[in-house]
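Justification of resources, computational component.

The compute hours requested in this renewal are based largely on the per-chain cost of generating structure records like the one below. Each record pairs the submitted sequence with a full structure-token output. That output is archived, and it is also reused by downstream analysis tasks.
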Amino acid sequence: MAGGLVALLDDIAALAKLAAASVDDVTAAAGRASAKAAGVVIDDTAVTPRYVVGLSPDRELPIIWKIALGSLRNKLLFILPAALALSALAPWAITPILMVGGAYLCFEAAEKIVEALSGHHHAEEVETISDPKELEARQVSGAVRTDFILSAEIMAIALSDLPAMSLGTRALVLAVVAVAITIGVYGVVALIVKMDDIGLHLSRRASSGVRALGRGLVKAMPVLLKALSHIGVAAMVWVGGGILLHGLDIFGLGAIPHAVEHFAEQVAHGVPAGQGVVVWLVNAIAAAILGLIVGGIIVGLLHLVPRKAAHG
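The structure output for this chain reads:
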């Protein structure tokens, strides 16, 4: 009887170790996959705060909550099953889909640059809507739609970086990535958009140092939002161009990616320290240049050509 109990306890311990190892494997895989998609995550974090511009401060957090739920729904109900189906039935399609998404990111960035140069901005369009409910619905809808593209890129990049594993484990890893990234992104976004309220609260405290910190946060808020808009555009062209470079290499059109890598290594050789940073920076700049070129071409095709035809 005692021997049977000991054997049972041994089996339970073995199963517990196996489960712990599986959890560690899932966590490690999710961590690696999330890190690989970091560029798009930065983009997502930088882009989202602009969707609360022009809205009532007391609606900021509820709107971010709605966008976060929409993002999680995008990832878990639509993108994750589609990604698993692709990985099982048509793994060759993952790279083309990534490249299409990368081209879209390049287009979005190029369009924002054109808007900035022409003086026509999304925020100005938003301010013309007088109904608060209509404005909120439009902002949430636009944010969730943009998030779908970014989430698809995140999940596809994560999927492409996973090692060989069972379908169930792959699904679990992607679900962990989806939840973790959504919490991280929208937690940071919520903190950013409420930074001025936090600063205002701190500015009323008794301590002079805390009051100074609060005033600094309030003053920094507009600067931060403006910087985030620029970071978002830069991240779009960098990530989109990088995806396109990687796709060209996979499809046997590696002349451009290899030339970029060779040039980056040559530049790094001329630097006494920080060669790894230099290689990364040169590759990022090259990816951004390619992203701007591709995005500019798409903007021209979608906007300038139809306008010219209409005038004709």
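Confidence is low (pLDDT under 50) at residues 1-6, 8-25. The chain has eleven helices and no strands.
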